[in-house]
Amino acid sequence: MVSLEWYRSFVEVYRVGTVSGAAQVLHLTQPAVSQHVAGLESALDYPLFQRMPRRMVPTEAGKRLYTEVIAAIERLESITAKTTTIDAPKILRIGTPQEFFAEMVLHRLPQSFQWLYRIHFGLTGDAIAELLEGRLDAVIATQKIARTDLEYQLIYEESFWLVTSPRLEISFLSNLPQLEEYLRTQPLIAYGEDLPIIRRFWRVVFGKRLDMVPRIVLPDLRLIQKAITLGNGFSVLPDYLCERAINSGELQLLLKPTDAVTNQIWLAYRKSERESQSVQLLLNELSRKGAVKP
């Protein structure tokens, strides 16, 4: 006899793409979810998934079954939700760069008892892997990693500015070559040893390759801002982080390029979850006028 739980496990594996991710959603063990899917395949007498190293890929039969049962499963889930705890909070798990989240996203999250937020800081590549495994619901990504099962929505385009300490006298600098030559005598503060943004900034703005070694490496943009304020050197920072500090006098703007050096920031989520409440919440809050500018 086929159990309803077998169908629920099948649907979640189909949605998330992994047994481990489905198990987390269903609050079951991985072996239990695997047994449910195997039991359903045995009862139907055809495979529903191809077992790949990191993904469960639905077969054509699996796709047909999903189409046939999903409406009934969602209807049963909605009835269960209405007859149990209507106000039960939903968990929203977000992977994100720490600085962007702190400056641009945290104050946009609805302060509602309907949502519980679980924030995971880290690099985009690692966060996307967690998203694909079903351990995150969405990722704020600084790059697009091509995957057919993911969608990206642009939420912000950051511009990079050259900034230094307000203690530094720069009034004698009158042109770009003079500024570039002068900066080579000053200590550079960077996010990492490889300097990807600063090198691109130098190439675009000054038309030269950068061969400087950073004096200080700080893997936190807000700490870089603090170090510059204290007079430790100069750096290239995103506009959302330094604009307020420049206006308040904590930082001094060396250069806001006419030909802007920019980087796009995206909200990434699984295609199968595009209509979910968690994804729609983030899209609404991060895309609405006056929030995070597109």
From TrEMBL:
GO MF entries: DNA-binding transcription factor activity; transcription cis-regulatory region binding
Annotated PROSITE patterns: HTH_LYSR
Keyword annotations from UniProtKB, A to Z: DNA-binding, Transcription, Transcription regulation
InterPro entries documented for this protein: LysR_HTH_N, LysR_subst-bd, WH-like_DNA-bd_sf, WH_DNA-bd_sf
Organism, as annotated: Dulcicalothrix desertica PCC 7102
Domain HTH lysR-type: 2-59
Listed name of the protein: LysR family transcriptional regulator
Similarity annotation: Belongs to the LysR transcriptional regulatory family.
Pfam family, one: LysR_substrate
Keyword Hydrolase annotated: no
Highest taxon above the source species: Bacteria
SUPFAM superfamilies named among the record's database cross-references: Periplasmic binding protein-like II (SSF53850), Winged helix' DNA-binding domain (SSF46785)
Phylogenetic placement of the source organism: Bacteria, Bacillati, Cyanobacteriota, Cyanophyceae, Nostocales
